[in-house]
Amino acid sequence: MARSKTPRIITDETTGKEYQFNRDALKEIIHSRTDKKKHITQANILQQLEEQCGLSVDQVRKWLYGANGIGNMENAKIISAFLDIDYHDILIDMNPTKEDKNMISNEEKSIIKKVFGECVSVLYKVQEITNFSNLTREEKNKHETKIILEIDSLIRNIHMLVDQNSFAIKNYNRYNLHRILLELLTASSSVTPHSSIN
Q: Is the pTM of this model over 0.85?
């Protein structure tokens, strides 16, 4: 019988609030810190996390891809401090208030609209890969490589947009944006044969 991938409940002892670990958000944040030009991969980042914070690479990989994820608030805060983010960015509030879900400022609306607009730009770029069937193989490869680099740049800019405006976006909406970005990354990588997720 397959093991459940439902994360364990994490309790914040200072507030009594309950959370679940958001593995998708952490994957997306780590990916946003990778840089092909500087040869910074996910493996590099996890190795630095082990060296600086004492959390083993194998353990963090289990949290990212295993059954239960992070099981206590201390480790969530250690990883968040290492990545220089608010620890709420990698947690899901199990009991969001009605206000959390329904109230949204004009600033937040503007940010979300901008993120979705950038996501649409990525999808249009993905379509461009298949729009030059009349090119030679060499021309097609050059065109494909150029588009893939542009897609990588667009996705990285979207990550930065969310990160830079994290304090203006409520946790509930930030979680949904992280989920959408991860799905966009997966979708775009599936049609860009030379790209890879480190």
A: no
